[in-house]
Amino acid sequence: MITGEHLGVLAGEHWLFRGLDCEVRPGECLALVGPNGSGKSTLLRCFYGMQEPTEGAVTVLGGAPDERDRGFRRRVSALLDDSDFFAELTPVQHLDLVAGSFGVELDHDELLADAGLEERATVTAGRFSAGQRRRLLLLGATARPFEVLLLDGPERALDADGKEWLTTLVARAVSSGAAVVLATHHPPLLSSADHVVDLV
Length: 200
Ligand SMILES: Nc1ncnc2c1ncn2[C@@H]1O[C@H](COP(=O)(O)OP(=O)(O)OP(=O)(O)O)[C@@H](O)[C@H]1O
Prior knowledge:
Blueprint: E1 2-11, E2 14-24, E3 29-33, H1 40-48, E4 55-60, H2 70-75, E5 76-79, H3 91-102, H4 108-114, H5 130-143, E6 148-152, H6 160-175, E7 179-183, H7 187-192, E8 195-198
Parallel strand pairs: 3-7, 3-8, 5-6, 6-7
Antiparallel strand pairs: 1-2, 1-4
Helix pairs in contact: 3-5, 5-6
Bound molecules: adenosine-5'-triphosphate (ATP).
Adenosine-5'-triphosphate (ATP) binds near residues 11, 12, 37 and 42.
Protein name: ABC transporter ATP-binding protein
GO molecular function, one term: ATP binding
Family: Belongs to the ABC transporter superfamily.
């Protein structure tokens, strides 16, 4: 479902990574680790079609990834930055947007309680703390249908309960048959991953 063959990205005069092969099948999770600046976000951007590798080829769902393609975005859920955050909307309105865009029915109460946002359900998200904002972004990325899930540093700003919830979200995504790739240093996510790529 996701393959990378001999991937390399040249950053200026030095290779961030080179000769990287990977494969993530449906129902599997690949965790990317490595120090700051080692290329984890860059590799995720290659999987989402935001950036071309300098060398090698990426295939996602049988074709070249292209974030500009609506059909691709409907099958691939990516949380790579905070851009899907609407400060003027409440969590309920965020979920309405997801439900309307994807034509799915969502149990708002259950999802918001699960995310620990039930008391913030009707507060505009611009007033949220960093961790609440991250919970809302993760909720938006996972409440919709997807076959591939790409997450960059999903544990950022989350407290212990939030990290536990995140681990459950990823486990659910994997058991529903999605191919999941995440850049993370959260030990439970690393230990449950099927593959780990260390970008050193
Ligand atoms: N095409 C490019 N040309 C020049 N520099 C690049 C290119 N692509 C990435 N870089 C640089 O390479 C580094 C890799 O950044 P990236 O965000 O992928 O690392 P990361 O492992 O996700 O880091 P962090 O753990 O800090 O989030 C950055 O310094 C980035 O500016």
